[in-house]
Amino acid sequence: MAQAKESVVTPERFASGLTYQQYIAQIERNREKFEFNHRETKLSEEDVQAFRELVARPDGPAKVLVLGEDWCPDVFRGMAVMARIAEAAGMEVRVFPRDQNLDIMNEFLNQGEHQSIPTFVFYTRDHQYLAHWMERPALANWQRPIQMKIFEGRSREEAMPDYEKFQQGETWAGWRQATVQEIRELLTNLYQ
Predict the structure, then answer these.
(1) What CATH number did the domain enclosing 89 receive?
(2) Among 29, 63, 82, 136, which residue has the least CB neighbours within 10 Å?
(3) Is 6 part of a structural domain of the chain?
(4) What is the DSSP letter of 133?
(5) Is-above-0.85 flag for pTM?
(6) What is the pLDDT of residues 61-85, one digit of tens each?
(7) Are 138 and 178 in contact (CB under 8 A)?
C-alpha cells in the first residue's frame, strides 16, 4: 500500500513522538503486559545481524513510527516486539498514540478503511517512506478463532484467567516470533 504523496509526518513531527521508554512511562493500562512481551521477545543472532545490516544501508530503515494504544492486546504484544527489533538494530523509534494522531493513522488505514494498530511505518535516515506493517502477523489471524473460543458462552470476567494463560503461553510466543519474521521479510524484500 502506497503512502499519500504529502504526508503529515514531517521530520519535525516524527521527532516530536515519544521514545518507547517515554511511551511506557506514561501509559495508564497494561504496563506489565508490555514489559512481559518486551522481555519475552527473542531475536536470533541471525535476526539481529539482518536487521543491523538493513539499518546500516544508506537507504535503510533507520527510523520507525509506531501508532498504538495501551488498551489493545495487539499493541502490547506487537509494539514490544518492534521495540526489541529497534534496540537490536539501532533504529530510532517514535511512538504516537493513535487516538490523538488520527491524521497520521488515516494515511495508513488497513484496507483503506480500518484504523488497525499497532502500525509500524519505516523511514530512511532522511525521512523517505519505505513501508509499513500493521496489526498482527498472519499466524495470529489464522489462530484467532482459537483465541475467541475462550470467551464463548462466558462473561469477560469468567474467561480472563484462561485468556491470560493463552496470551502468556506458547501461542503468543509464536505470534511474537512471527512478527519478527514478517518485519524482517518486509524490510529485506525492499532491497531485492
Answers:
(1) 3.40.30.10
(2) 29
(3) no
(4) E
(5) yes
(6) 999 999 999 999 899 999 999 999 9
(7) yes
